[in-house]
Amino acid sequence: MTSKRPKAPFAVAPRRLNVPLAWSKTAAKPVSRAITYRNNTRKAMQVRLKVNLRDRSGRAVPAALARLSTTSLIVQAGREAGAELELRRDGTKPGAYHGTVQVSSAAGEPLGSTAVSVDLQAPVPAPAAAVGSVTASANSIVADLASPGIPDLTRRYPLTYRNTGSKPVTLRLAADMNGPGGEPTPAPAALLQVPGQVTVPARGTAKVTLTFRGAKIPHGRYLGALVATGTDGTTKVTTTLVADVGREKYSVAVNLLDRDGAVPTQPTWVYAWSVSDGGRWMREVVNGRDVFELPPGTYDITTAITTGAGETLINHRVTVDDWDLDLRMDAREGRPVELSPQGIGVPGEIEAWYDTPWYSFNAVGPEGSVFAVWHGPDEVKENVGFQVTGWGKRDATGGPGAAYILRRRFDGRIPSATVWHPSPDELSVTRNHFRSVNLSGSGELKVTGGLVDEMRLKVTLPQTVTTYIEPGLVYSRELGYGIEYGKWAEIADYRIEAQRGERDDVWNGAVLAPGAFAENKPYRGSNGQLSVSAYDQYTDASGRTGSMDRTANAFTLTADGQTIGTGTGQLYATLPPESKRYTLTWNRTAHPEIARFSTAITTEWSFESHHIEWQSQILPLHLLRLAVPGLDDANTAAPGSSTQIPVKVEPVAGLPAPEITSMSVETSADDGKTWEAASAAEEGGDWTATVTNPDAPGFVSLRIKAADADGNTVSQTFIRAYGVRA
After folding, report:
1. Is the peptide bond before 295 cis (omega within 30 degrees of 0)?
2. Each residue of 586-612: pLDDT tens digit?
3. d(CA 680, CA 506)
4. Pairing of β 713-724 and β 636-637
5. Which of 98, 177, 301, 422 is the most exposed place for a label (fewest CB within 10 A)?
């Protein structure tokens, strides 16, 4: 996977060019460097040459900086041919530039390259003439901190001051350096250390030492001056300072091939990530080959190569030490990445990731089109992992639907197998029975979880959609139904942790009831203010919460036969301090173009309340919850059948469950115009209403009143609670 550059049928020399150049403000003669190409085959070869240089930020530099004497050569069999790389010293700002001279066959096949580093050095300003009797042993000091292999190099330079006068002179020393690359920003303070002052005796000398340190200093050329100012007010000596901070670097060439074995037809980004500190280098590879210049260390070289509709995720873990490297990033080596349940026949999508503390890199596509390549140790100490998410859906407009989200993660290793097809008994399998409560008869299911932001399925109601979820994955389901904006309803389960096994979930099962007061509890404040708020939320028989557009809510509060307050959606009323029995009525009407069941709900509470000093009171406005058994997916019962309905009382949050002492039940087959008594029985504290359904198709309305041991009552009337089928 990594190697010293091998001998090849086609050779390039040199493989590396390091060219220091003195920048010129005016036009100057270019500097040339020769590159030789040798053909070791038995046939003449026509080759193409291309130069590509970039600055420190990865931006392409002006073409005027580097130009080839030719862009095409014919290299005879067993012979050599050459080209000149001309580098201009003017027309481009000073700085460090890196890149390659690439050579390829006439058909575009990469044959090799020469890594090029150009250090266009900013001019060193001339020092000012000395003033006074003191001179320095050097007009300028150039510190070379760029020796290969010693990135933390420290250099010390002596500087001697000579005094020709008859009196000693004390010099205050101050150094000022900017950079790198001619930039006006101050250099790091750690780059240079100088003494604060020195005294030069009369007709004598004094020596100081300048210490340059390149450790942890950004690479580049730093310019400045050391100014020695005499305390006598007449002496001044300037010494120009230059510090070249560099680091050992090696060439890592990447050669890209897609799954057809061809050079990718579109530009492909390749990234080099330092395993030790997360440093990043990147190249947009245009013709299948480019070269990174990297300091010693361990790197992940990562890319995703597109072939047709799919992608191949490729990662090479390499160690850069004492050799240049050639990497062939070949998509044909990719193993297929698949993640879908067995036997459900649902086409899906795949998103595969290489994941580290520093970055994540992914490939996405239809299952069967995503592949992965890993070159490196299977077990790695660093927190490197491989993860894959698979998801797919089948709409439920022509029959039962299905959706799945599977996700696997492998921390600290890259898996040897990248194909997983778990059987349903390994997963969380939920049969979601979406009952018909929608006059339009259609809806949309949204499933999210893991890395899947949104997966939408069209649903014809009633219908069943089975979800297959990886155990432990947190996911959400949301069913929307209605006609259009403003005439829409939805019901959802949010952030459910998938549990292994099978289950059935019934959605929108009758009876649909008002949602709980939740956070905005009904209360009487210490100031005597009563506050009750209603929202568009509703609760189905399973306790799942939904909402419906344009639900109308009206409140009326009475006491002693007098109306104390009314409100639409909210009710605020000031209560007298003495104890009274109050009756609160909540009339709730569903949108007639959406709702098929629970089209109107009337809830009436009777309770006593009085003022308590400095204390707010939660009001006992409990709600009834009814789950009608034996209904089909249209929420209808068989005509003439007998239905036993468990009746639960849901207390207001913060209050204990009331002890129900009596219950009455009535039914209506004409939407509440007439009512007939039904029976209710209690056993072990649980209440059950027994209802005889009409013989004719239509709807059953319910009116149930419950009284508790404290004398409070709640009565709820559900118009069209459920249906009776033909």
Report:
1. no
2. 999 998 888 999 999 999 999 999 988
3. 25
4. parallel
5. 422
